[in-house]
């Protein structure tokens, strides 16, 4: 068939037969006629991309239209259609050299070894997901022993490639790959899920080869995108990031938030591998093996989308080569796989998720061994190169480049002071970055963007991705990340924050517009659950600064504090009450007003600290003196300070907060005093869902104004 006839035939059959040319120069032809084949007829390289081409396989049976596809393939392999299907400009002009036959066979054998390890380790633990591992075997074999550049002696080498197993339940095959790579003994795999082993059911950074914890599905792409963004734009290094995603988890909206981010920023150093094994936990996935739907969606999100047979070593090698040589866009390898691949009487069958093979294990292992040419195969990962290395960075001892510069009584919102401090520490250390969800002109993170635009990352209105990208950006201590948005919007990313703690992240969260004091915007914008949320995070530190000076110091302290930090900032202006040289320490509060005759201890933070001070003025007119404490940090709380001054005030304490009752400052104080006798605590809080209105009116209406504090003090004195 000559060129003209090919084109003519194509025009006649466009409604039945569709030719898809993907950006990485692999073409996949799918019959649209109901011929019963239900699969791609062939895949082949473009003539201009590879030195050699493969003879296309025969077309599916019972479909005459597929004969045209074969003819067109032949035309292409004969290089007669190079102008018709020319290589895309997004592919670097690099030739693909097919691995030697022995290498291909070794990778196949190693894939079977990984399957066997997954079976034996889950048998030993009597739990786990061997069938979910089996669908990944060839992918993991090619990745670890043909693609990834690793430093086995230092798995978190800043210059080595990154790998994230987003489908964390397939942890046994990840551990098996690292064991085969030589990081630890294969015998250790039998300790999977044991209480004294760090080979846990899902990966965590207790292991030195794991960057982030996974298993709460839908989060790996965001973290990988954060790593890739830093590699491309800050480190400017050659390392690449690979993320394996399960087809089941691709139903998560957070995945598509992250794919949008990666496509928008042209992260060509990111490769996302979709393990499309068709089956979820309890039934088939919604798309099953509709590979064209995956491809079309990913292309629409700006990805270089490659559909491959996920059990074909040759196709995987070609796809990864194209991914590595694609510029200006990320790559998605959409691998058609089968759950329980090569497990007789189990492959592609439902009801095998999360189950060891039990009494079928020996039979399956024997079958897998029979498929191997060299059962003793040993391969090593590629080593990190000597060029394109990540630069050395130092993120210790971050400081404000200049101290706070305010006058007592100045009226400054703490959210504005946050932006000022962010720019200051950014001037001190070039690894300080800011991420925001399109609220930068409200949170004032734009103050960093204005002076260091290359260190500001706009994540748009996609808070789950916002948090995940920050976690990835902070991995391997590459950055000091500050993430800001309205405090209430962090609630939709709670799982990402929770997983960040499991991942031992050092990310700083800044939530503005907290409480009903924001006013007319109404309850949907009011952060009233944020303290409760962040208090539950293991190892978290919660700052609640009340003025501009304490806010700047909170930012400086957070930048140097391990773990998750949360800084709660307010929308209204508040008076500066601290001198510029006032020292602040985590876990140490401040007594801002006191007299020997004080009868009640008032505790407030942010807006309510000023309501307490106003109440103290009113009470003094009634000949009642009260003491006022600013806790500065809600977690850890300065318990000793509260107990000491509470006792001096006769054990009478009033806590006032712009937050719901549960989980906030009041409950933190109550918990702290629970072990002490002779205390009476009155807790003022926002009791129900607020409404729109002027801030002062709302504060009074919902029971946390100075007037309400005066009433509470009088009530507690009468007891």
Blueprint (SSEs and pairs):
Layout: H1 3-12, E1 17-21, E2 26-31, E3 40-45, H2 65-77, H3 101-125, H4 130-134, H5 137-147, E4 149-150, E5 162-165, H6 171-181, H7 220-235, E6 241-246, H8 253-264, E7 270-276, H9 291-300, E8 304-309, H10 313-324, E9 331-336, H11 361-370, E10 382-383, E11 411-413, H12 414-428, E12 432-436, H13 440-443, H14 446-451, E13 456-458, H15 463-474, E14 480-486, H16 494-502, E15 507-512, H17 530-535, E16 541-543, H18 548-559, E17 565-568, E18 573-575, E19 590-593, E20 600-604, H19 607-621, E21 626-630, E22 633-635, H20 639-648, E23 652-660, H21 665-673, E24 680-686, H22 695-701, H23 706-718
Helix pairs in contact: 1-2, 3-5, 3-6, 3-11, 5-6, 5-10, 7-8, 7-15, 8-15, 12-18, 15-16, 19-23
Using the coordinates above, name the CATH class of the largest domain: Alpha Beta
Please give the share of residues in helix.
25-40%
Oligomeric form? single chain
Describe the strand arrangement of the main beta sheet, using strand numbers. 13-12-14-15-17-16-22
Query: Which stretches are low in confidence, meaning pLDDT under 50 for 5 or more residues running?
Result: 1-93
Shape: elongated
Family: Belongs to the transketolase family.
Domain Transketolase-like pyrimidine-binding: 412-576
EC number: 2.2.1.1
Cofactor: Mg(2+); Ca(2+); Co(2+); Mn(2+)
């Amino acid at each position: 068939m000559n060129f003209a006839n090919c084109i003519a035939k194509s025009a006649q059959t466009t409604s039945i037969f569709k030719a898809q040319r993907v950006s990485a120069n692999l073409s996949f032809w799918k019959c649209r006629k109901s011929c019963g084949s239900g699969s791609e007829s062939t895949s082949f390289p473009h003539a201009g991309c590879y030195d050699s081409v493969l003879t296309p396989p025969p077309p599916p049976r019972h479909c005459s239209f597929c004969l045209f596809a074969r003819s067109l393939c032949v035309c292409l392999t004969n290089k007669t259609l190079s102008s018709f299907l020319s290589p895309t400009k997004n592919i670097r002009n690099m030739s693909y050299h097919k691995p030697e036959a022995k290498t291909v066979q070794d990778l196949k054998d190693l894939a079977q070894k990984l399957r066997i390890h997954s079976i034996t380790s889950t048998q030993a633990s009597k739990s786990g997901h061997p069938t979910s591992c089996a669908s990944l075997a060839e992918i993991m074999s090619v990745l670890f022993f043909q693609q990834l550049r690793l430093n086995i002696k230092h798995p978190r080498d800043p210059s080595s490639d990154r790998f994230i197993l987003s489908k964390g339940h397939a942890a046994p095959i990840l551990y098996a790959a690292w064991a085969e790579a030589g990081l630890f003994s294969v015998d250790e795999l039998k300790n999977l899920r044991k209480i004294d082993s760090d080979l846990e059911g899902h990966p965590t950074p207790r292991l030195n080869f794991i960057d982030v914890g996974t298993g709460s599905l839908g989060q790996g792409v965001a973290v990988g995108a954060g790593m890739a963004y830093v590699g491309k734009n800050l480190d400017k290094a050659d390392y690449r990031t690979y993320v394996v995603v399960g087809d089941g988890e691709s139903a998560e909206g957070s995945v598509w938030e992250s794919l949008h981010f990666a496509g928008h920023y042209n992260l060509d150093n990111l490769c996302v591998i979709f393990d499309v094994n068709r089956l979820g936990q309890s039934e088939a996935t919604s798309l099953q093996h509709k590979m064209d739907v995956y491809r079309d969606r990913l292309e629409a999100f700006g990805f270089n989308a490659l559909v491959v047979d996920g059990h074909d070593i040759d196709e995987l090698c070609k796809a990864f080569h194209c991914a590595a040589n694609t510029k200006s866009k990320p790559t998605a390898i959409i691998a058609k796989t089968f759950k329980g691949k090569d497990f007789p009487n189990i492959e592609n069958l439902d009801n095998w998720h999360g189950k060891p093979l039990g009494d079928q294990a020996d039979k399956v292992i024997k079958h897998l061994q029979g498929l191997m040419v060299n059962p003793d195969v040993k391969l090593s990962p590629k080593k990190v190169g000597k060029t394109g290395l990540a630069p050395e960075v130092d993120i210790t001892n971050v400081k404000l480049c200049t101290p706070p510069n305010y006058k007592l009584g100045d009226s400054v919102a703490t959210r504005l002071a946050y932006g000022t401090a962010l720019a200051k520490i950014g001037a001190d250390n070039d690894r300080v970055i800011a991420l925001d969800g399109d609220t930068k002109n409200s949170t004032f993170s734009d103050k960093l963007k204005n002076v260091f635009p290359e260190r500001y990352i706009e994540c748009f209105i996609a808070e789950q991705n916002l948090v995940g990208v920050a976690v990835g950006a902070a991995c391997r201590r590459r950055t000091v990340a500050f993430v800001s948005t309205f405090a209430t919007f962090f609630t939709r990313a709670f799982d990402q924050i929770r997983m960040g703690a499991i991942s031992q992240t050092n990310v700083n969260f800044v939530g503005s517009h907290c409480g009903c004091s924001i006013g007319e915007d109404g309850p949907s914008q009011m952060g009233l659950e944020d303290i409760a949320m962040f208090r539950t995070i293991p190892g978290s530190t919660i700052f609640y600064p009340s003025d501009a000076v304490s806010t700047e110091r909170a930012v400086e302290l957070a930048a140097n504090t391990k773990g998750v930090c949360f800084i709660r900032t307010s929308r209204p202006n508040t008076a500066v009450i601290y001198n510029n040289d006032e020292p602040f320490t985590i876990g140490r509060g401040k007594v801002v007003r006191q007299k020997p005759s004080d009868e009640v201890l008032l505790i407030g933070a942010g807006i309510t600290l000023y309501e307490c001070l106003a109440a103290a003025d009113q009470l003094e007119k009634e000949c009642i003196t009260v003491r006022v404490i600013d806790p500065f940090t809600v977690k850890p709380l300065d318990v000793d300070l509260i107990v000491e001054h509470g006792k001096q005030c006769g054990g009478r304490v009033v806590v006032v907060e712009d937050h719901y009752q549960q989980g906030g400052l009041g409950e933190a104080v109550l918990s702290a005093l629970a072990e002490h006798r002779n205390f009476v605590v009155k807790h003022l809080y926002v009791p129900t869902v607020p409404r729109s209105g002027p801030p002062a009116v709302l504060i009074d209406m919902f029971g946390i104004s100075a007037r309400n504090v005066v009433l509470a003090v009088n009530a507690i004195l009468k007891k």
